[in-house]
Design the sequence.
C-alpha cells in the first residue's frame, strides 16, 4: 500500500497516491530544517536543509523540445516538451537570488494532487520555499573543466524539485545535476511562456482500472520516463555549464525515478552508474509481488547499481530487486534505511515535520508518510550514500564508510548482503 494512504481507498485528492500506484510512487520527504518560518495567512511556510559541500550552488532552467517524438500522453501534441533544471557548482552567487522550489503554477498543481494523508489542501504555501541554488549564478572555475554529471528523476506525480535536498547537495560537492520533469506525469510543469501542464495520470489510472489495463499503464509510464531520459542525454552537452566537458554520467531517482535510472542504464550505455531510491523494478501493484519484471531486472546490468529501500525492502524481499541482483554482473550495493517509509527519500522528510508543527497536525501524520526514522538522520544518511556511490563510480574516489559495510557511525543504515 501507498504509505500516504494506508487504510484508505483511492479518491479524487490524487489517485496517484492510491495503493495501486504506490509502486511507482509520488512521495515526498525532506530533512528537518534548522529554522522554521512563521506561517503566512494560516498557511505553513517551509525551509529546506542547506547543502554541506564546499561550493555554492547555481541553477538554470531549460525548456527542451523533442521534435522526433509526439507527446505520448497528449497525442495531438506533435513534439514532446520537457523542463529541466541544471544544478552546478557556482563561482559567485552575489546578486543572484535563491531559486524557488516550485513556481506558482507548479505549486498550485502540486497542492491539488496533495497525497500526504492528513495534510489539508490549501494550507501549505508551496511556492514560498526557497532552495539554496542561486538563479543564473556563474559556474565555478576549475583547473580542469571536467564535470561528472548526474541526472535526477522524481517519483510519479512529483515535480523535479522534490529531490532538491539531494540534488543541491551533489552540486555543492562539484557535480552538475540535471533534474527532469516528466510532463503530464508530474503534478504540474510550468513553461517559460507561463503555460502550466498538469498531470494526466489520474485520468489514465481511472481508465486503466475500468479497462483492466493497469500493467500496460505502468509499462507506458516507465517507458516514457526512459525515453525522456535518453532525450536529455542527447542534449547533455548543451546543458552543462559553458566550457565544461562531461567526464561521466550517473543517474538516480526516487520510486519511479529509481526505476527510470536502472532501466535507463540497462538501455543506454551512456549511463555509467545508477542509484535507485526505493523504486520497484517490475510492473506490479505492490513491491513484494512477483512477476512482470522489467528487462533491467530480468537481464541485470553490467555497471554499478545502488539499491536503497525503505524498511522491509531489500533484494531478499522485493522480487524485482532479487532478479536484478542475481542477474547483474556489475558492482552492486543494497542498503535499507531503518524505520523509513517510501516517502523518506524525497524532500518531505524535511518539510513534513514543519507542516505538522505549524498546522498542529497529529504526529501520526509524520510516521504514516516517512516512518519513525529521525528526519535529520535520514537526510544525512541519504546524502552520504548517494554522494559516496557517485564519488566511487564517477570520480574513482573511495566511496566512504556508508558503502563499506555495517558502521556504528550510521546506525540508521542496514547493509544488506
Sequence:
Amino acid at each position: 500500500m501507498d504509505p500516504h494512504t494506508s487504510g484508505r481507498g483511492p479518491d479524487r485528492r490524487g489517485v496517484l497516491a492510491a495503493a495501486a500506484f504506490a509502486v511507482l510512487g509520488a512521495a515526498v520527504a525532506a530533512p528537518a530544517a534548522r529554522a522554521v518560518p512563521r506561517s503566512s495567512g494560516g498557511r505553513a511556510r517551509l525551509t529546506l536543509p542547506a547543502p554541506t559541500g564546499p561550493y555554492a550552488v547555481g541553477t538554470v532552467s531549460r525548456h527542451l523540445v523533442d521534435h522526433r517524438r509526439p507527446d505520448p500522453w497528449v497525442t495531438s501534441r506533435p513534439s514532446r516538451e520537457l523542463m529541466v533544471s541544471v544544478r552546478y557548482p557556482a563561482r559567485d552567487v552575489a546578486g543572484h537570488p535563491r531559486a524557488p522550489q516550485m513556481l506558482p503554477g507548479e505549486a498550485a498543481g502540486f497542492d491539488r494532487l496533495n497525497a500526504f494523508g492528513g495534510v489539508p489542501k490549501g494550507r501549505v504555501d508551496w511556492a514560498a520555499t526557497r532552495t539554496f541554488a542561486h538563479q543564473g549564478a556563474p559556474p565555478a572555475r576549475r583547473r580542469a573543466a571536467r564535470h561528472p554529471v548526474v541526472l535526477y528523476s522524481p517519483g510519479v506525480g512529483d515535480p523535479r524539485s522534490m529531490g532538491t535536498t539531494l540534488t543541491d547537495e551533489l552540486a555543492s560537492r562539484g557535480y552538475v545535476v540535471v533534474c527532469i520533469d516528466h510532463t503530464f506525469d508530474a503534478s504540474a510543469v510550468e513553461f517559460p511562456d507561463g503555460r502550466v501542464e498538469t498531470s494526466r495520470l489520474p485520468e489514465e489510472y481511472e481508465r486503466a482500472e475500468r479497462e483492466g489495463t493497469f500493467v500496460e499503464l505502468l509499462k507506458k509510464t516507465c517507458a516514457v520516463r526512459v525515453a525522456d531520459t535518453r532525450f536529455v542525454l542527447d542534449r547533455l552537452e548543451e546543458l552543462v555549464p559553458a566550457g565544461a566537458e562531461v567526464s561521466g554520467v550517473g543517474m538516480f531517482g526516487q520510486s519511479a525515478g529509481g526505476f527510470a535510472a536502472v532501466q535507463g542504464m540497462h538501455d543506454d550505455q551512456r549511463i555509467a552508474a545508477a542509484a535507485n531510491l526505493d523504486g520497484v523494478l517490475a510492473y506490479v501493484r505492490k513491491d513484494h509481488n512477483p512477476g512482470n519484471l522489467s528487462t533491467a531486472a530480468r537481464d541485470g546490468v553490467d555497471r554499478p547499481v545502488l539499491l536503497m529501500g525503505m524498511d522491509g525492502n531489500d533484494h531478499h524481499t522485493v522480487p524485482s530487486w532479487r532478479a536484478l541482483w542475481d542477474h547483474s554482473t556489475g558492482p552492486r550495493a543494497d542498503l535499507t534505511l531503518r524505520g523509513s517509509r517510501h516517502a523518506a527519500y524525497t524532500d518531505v522528510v524535511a518539510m513534513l515535520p514543519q507542516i505538522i508543527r505549524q498546522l498542529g497536525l497529529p504526529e501520526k501524520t509524520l510516521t504514516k508518510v516517512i516512518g519513525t526514522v529521525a528526519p535529520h538522520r535520514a537526510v544525512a544518511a541519504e546524502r552520504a550514500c548517494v554522494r559516496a556511490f557517485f564519488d566511487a563510480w564517477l570520480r574513482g574516489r573511495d566511496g566512504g564508510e556508508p558503502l563499506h559495510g555495517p558502521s556504528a557511525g550510521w546506525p540508521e543504515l542496514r547493509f544488506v548482503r
